């Protein structure tokens, strides 16, 4: 073989490696990257809103914004632009605390929004500003398994089998990771198990986690594209998307009970007062609770509050008995402290795994 | 004053020095000072509790261990590559020469994803390696591999110009004086390359210590096993524990500073010895 053809082969190989990876990166970073503003509509003279949200809501907010902007313009004549920013929920909270000018914050977990109250950016009692504790929709943690469910995973207890490899992001850095752990915990203690049983069960699960990704999308890529693991613990909307895009390679499994994911919304008072956007921010978030808004939410695989809309989309949302974070601990702060703080339950589980491994 | 003037015949000493110091202060010292101040808001006991647990020690050890391994690999591999690029004429040399810089241009997260995709059990290389028991993804080996990729240009680019200045005449002279090939390499070429190699090694090592973007994709982030110190920092940030996070950063900085100091000292010692 001549040098020239060798070189050509080398170039082709290089392109062959870089291209699929570049595409994957592009997909991945389209969803999980540093905060990035997406302009949903450009108009000449406008009132502008910035909605700072968490990762998997990108498509949801694009749809909501498009509808709300049209509605708002026809009702008030004001031209409105809504920008969205997406990244991990915790880092979005930090960004707002550090000065990102968000008019509304729509984050994944209660502690992330409450950080803004602690920083005096939103007023105490923000949970009562909108219906249902300022939670316009909910979701839950479900299982994604490989085609045909070869490991026979039907409920939480099946995750404890010794040869079952589980993919879930790290609870230390990911909100979905936290929900998954609490789901596993609740599946034991809320069915009569003791905390000791729950701890033992959760330890068994994390012993069989081969990769702890830092974010929810990372875990999705690890499971669906790299083919690692037998079951992926994912939030329903993420899971449905993952299964849809797998061309039949993956299946959804609904456990009988699971944890309820309640992503809260709030107006960032300090910002809207300065910018004079209180009213529009309020009607923006109110819109989420209207039947129209609830339909958009359901179309994006998040469970709507509105009973009628929920019935209409019932085929998307199989019945799961849901328990809340409050059923596990008195409130989020206590749960955070008990499970995820430095040196708390999650860390001590790994300490234990490490000890028993090095004792072998 | 007069002494300083005698140091240089070039004008503009004070102007250029003040520019340098301003930039240094703005770009380097200010962020470092902020880091130290944040960590300083903790009491001594809190600081110690944040930075010195079984888990953080495992992470420091891993971070420095894999960085060292990557730097050693890169030094050997980089020397070889520089040698081939400088001493041999072959078709495609130019292309190869420009490819060397690719790791600098590529976002490190891309490198991380490429490596983990290649070495997982259904990846191109992984399908052959995993059955042999070689885990090139989600293991310590994976971290070393990706760090060696990222650091490689440093050694090549520091050694290459030095190697170019060493004429082939010198090797011929050594041969005429009866040196074997190994003696020529060991006694004649290597001493001349030593400072450049050490610089390349230091750069690679320092770069690897701070690497985050690529490592999180290949390591698996398992506590005590493949969790590097920067991942711990991010975990603490997620808890909104800024001070504790910077405390870990300060410890990393301090250890790196000491290590780099030692390497610098070695370099100077070597220079003094050889003159």
Structure description:
The complex is a heterodimer of chains A (360) and B (275). Chain A contains 16 helices and 12 strands. In chain A, the strands form 2 sheets. In chain A, strands 5, 6, 7, 8, 9, 11 and 12 form a 7-stranded mixed β-sheet that branches. In chain A, strands 1-3-2-4-10 form a 5-stranded mixed β-sheet. The longest helix of chain A has 29 residues, at 3-31. Residues 30-44 of chain A have low confidence and may be disordered. Chain A has helices at residues 3-31, 58-76, 89-97, 110-118, 131-134, 175-189, 195-207, 216-224, 236-244, 269-275, 278-287, 291-299, 307-312, 325-328, 332-340, 345-359; strands spanning 37-39, 47-54, 80-87, 104-106, 137-146, 166-167, 231-235, 250-253, 257-261, 265-267, 303-304, 321-323. Chain A has 360 residues and is α/β, with parallel strands linked by helices. Chain B has a domain at 61-228: Orthogonal Bundle (MetI-like fold), CATH 1.10.3720. Helix content of chain B is 79%, strand content 0%. Chain B has 14 helices and no strands. Chain B is globular. Chain B starts with a helix and ends with a helix. The relative contact order of chain B is 0.14. The model of chain B has no long low-confidence stretch (mean pLDDT 89). The interface between A and B is large, with 41 and 40 residues.
Topology overview:
The complex is a heterodimer of chains A (360) and B (275).
Chain A: H1 3-31, E1 37-39, E2 47-54, H2 58-76, E3 80-87, H3 89-97, E4 104-106, H4 110-118, H5 131-134, E5 137-146, E6 166-167, H6 175-189, H7 195-207, H8 216-224, E7 231-235, H9 236-244, E8 250-253, E9 257-261, E10 265-267, H10 269-275, H11 278-287, H12 291-299, E11 303-304, H13 307-312, E12 321-323, H14 325-328, H15 332-340, H16 345-359
Chain B: H1 2-7, H2 13-40, H3 44-51, H4 54-87, H5 93-99, H6 102-105, H7 108-119, H8 126-129, H9 140-165, H10 168-176, H11 181-210, H12 215-219, H13 229-238, H14 242-274
């Amino acid at each position: 073989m001549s040098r020239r053809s060798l070189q050509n082969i080398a170039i082709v190989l290089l392109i062959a490696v870089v291209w699929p990876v570049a595409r994957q990166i592009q997909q991945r970073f389209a969803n999980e990257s540093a905060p990035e503003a997406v302009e949903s509509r450009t108009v000449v003279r406008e009132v502008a809103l910035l909605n700072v949200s968490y990762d998997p809501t990108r498509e949801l907010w694009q749809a909501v914004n498009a509808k709300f902007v049209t509605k708002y313009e026809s009702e008030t004549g004001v031209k409105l632009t809504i920008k969205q920013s997406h990244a991990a929920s915790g880092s979005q909270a930090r960004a707002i605390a550090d000065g990102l000018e968000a008019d509304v914050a729509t984050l994944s977990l209660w502690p992330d929004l409450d950080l803004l109250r602690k920083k005096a950016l939103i007023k105490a009692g923000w949970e009562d500003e909108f219906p249902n504790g300022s939670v316009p929709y909910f979701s839950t943690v479900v299982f994604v398994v490989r085609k045909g469910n070869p490991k026979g995973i039907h409920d939480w207890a099946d995750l404890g089998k010794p040869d079952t490899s589980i993919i879930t992001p790290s609870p230390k850095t990911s909100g979905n990771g936290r929900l998954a752990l609490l789901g596993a915990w609740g599946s034991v203690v809320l069915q009569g198990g003791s905390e000791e049983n729950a701890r033992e069960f959760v330890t068994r699960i994390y012993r069989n986690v081969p990769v702890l990704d830092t974010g929810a999308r990372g875990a999705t890529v690890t499971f669906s594209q790299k083919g690692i693991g037998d079951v992926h613990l994912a939030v329903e909307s993420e899971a449905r998307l993952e299964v849809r895009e797998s061309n039949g390679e993956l299946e959804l499994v609904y456990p009988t009970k699971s944890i309820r994911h309640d992503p809260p919304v709030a107006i960032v008072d300090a910002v809207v007062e300065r910018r004079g956007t209180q009213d529009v921010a309020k009607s923006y978030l109110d819109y989420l609770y209207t039947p129209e808004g609830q339909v958009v939410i359901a179309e994006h695989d998040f469970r709507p509050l509105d009973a009628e809309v929920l019935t209409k989309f019932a085929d998307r949302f199989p019945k799961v008995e849901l328990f809340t974070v409050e059923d596990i601990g008195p409130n989020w702060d206590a749960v955070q402290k008990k499970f995820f703080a430095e040196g708390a339950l999650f860390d001590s589980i790994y300490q234990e795994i490490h000890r028993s491994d090095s004792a072998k | 004053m007069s002494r300083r003037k005698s140091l240089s015949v070039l004008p503009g000493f004070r102007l250029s020095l003040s520019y340098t110091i301003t930039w240094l202060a703005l770009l380097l010292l200010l962020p470092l000072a902020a880091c130290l101040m944040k960590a300083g808001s903790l009491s001594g006991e809190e600081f110690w509790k944040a930075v010195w647990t079984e888990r953080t020690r495992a992470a420091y050890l891993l971070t420095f261990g894999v960085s060292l391994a990557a730097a050693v690999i890169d030094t050997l591999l980089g020397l070889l590559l520089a040698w081939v690029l400088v001493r041999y004429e072959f078709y495609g040399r130019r292309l190869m020469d420009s490819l060397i810089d690719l790791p600098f241009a590529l976002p490190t997260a891309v490198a991380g994803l490429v490596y983990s995709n290649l070495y997982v059990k259904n990846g191109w290389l992984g399908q052959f390696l995993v059955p042999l028991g070689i885990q090139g993804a989600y293991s310590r080996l994976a971290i070393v591999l990706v760090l060696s990729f990222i650091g490689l240009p440093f050694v090549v680019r520091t050694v290459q110009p030095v190697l170019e200045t060493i004429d082939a005449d010198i090797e011929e002279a050594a041969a005429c004086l009866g040196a074997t090939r190994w003696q020529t390499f060991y006694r004649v070429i290597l001493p001349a390359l030593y400072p450049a190699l050490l610089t390349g090694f230091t750069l690679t090592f320092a770069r690897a210590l701070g690497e985050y973007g690529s490592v999180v994709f290949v390591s698996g982030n398992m506590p005590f096993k493949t969790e590097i110190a920067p991942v711990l920092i991010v975990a603490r940030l997620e808890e909104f524990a800024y001070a504790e996070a910077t405390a870990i950063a300060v410890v990393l900085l301090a250890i790196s500073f000491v290590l780099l100091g030692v390497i610098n000292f070695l370099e100077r010692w070597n220079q003094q010895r050889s003159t």
